Structures are given as C-alpha cells and as structure tokens.
Amino acid sequence: MSIYIAFLRSVNVGGTGKLPMSDLARMCRDIGFEDVQTYIASGNVIFSTDMTPEGARVSLEARLYEYCGKTIRVHIRTPKEISQIVQTNPFPKAAGNQIGVLLLDGPPDLSAPLNGQQDEQVVAGAREIYAHYPSGIGRSKLVLPGTSTGTTRNMNTLVKMLGLAHKLA
C-alpha cells in the first residue's frame, strides 16, 4: 500500500465549494482508501491505497463529481514529493503562513510577466510555484499562472500533512 496526500481545489474557500470533511473522508473510504485522515476544512486528505497516484486521483475526482455535480480538481502527491517541496523551499526564513505553494499538474511556466505582483517573490519548482507574500497572502493581488487548475497551500499546511504521512508509515 502506498500513502498519498490529496489536495482538493476550491473547496470551502471564500464561500465556494462547500464540502464537509466528514463527507470527504467517507467518500475516500467508499472508494477503498484506508487510513483516511482529513486536515482542516480546505480539502486536504491523506490515505493509503494500492492504486497508482493517477488511479486514486481519477477515482476521487469521479466520486467528488457524483457528490457535488461539478468537477473538483484533485492534486495528489506522495510524502516524498511533499518532503522535497518542503526541503527545497526557496524562502526558508519566511513564516510558513507567508509562503504559498501552488500545486500544478505539470512544470510551471513563469516566462510571462506576473499580474498584480508587488512585494511578492516567486520561484518555480518541479510541479509547483513557490510564492513568498511578505505583506500576507490575503492582501496580495498576485495572479500566478496555473491558478485556474492548480491549488495553493501554505507551507504550514504542507508540513502538517507531511507529519501526518510519517505517522502512517
């Protein structure tokens, strides 16, 4: 069995996509995932399964569509991948709640100028974009490429999910 961490896009953020985490956990168990744990109400779930990451993603997205009647994007990472994201954080001295990590399906493209950039610093990763928001994420007007399909978590959440994954291992 492999351990995976799933991050749902646009769930319980800004009054959109209401999804109780108890329902998410039940859906995961119905699919056959084991050791299911959710963390905070923004669509973070850890589980173990014999499925591939792609199979788990497809299964969870299909179940979410049945539940919500609309597509909810799911980004799945292994604990090793989350560990790599945390270890290669280009802003190690910044507070974890001031670092947003946009999780993407593929390599990011930062070739075009960024809209709304003020004091934020932005760095591309393998399948993510790191952004340091010194004035706070909530005050930023920065628009990163991939926000329409990716999902952002702050560094504190990624570290917490990694800790939960290590407890399952």
From TrEMBL:
Domain of life of the source: Bacteria
Protein name, per record: DUF1697 domain-containing protein
Organism: Donghicola eburneus
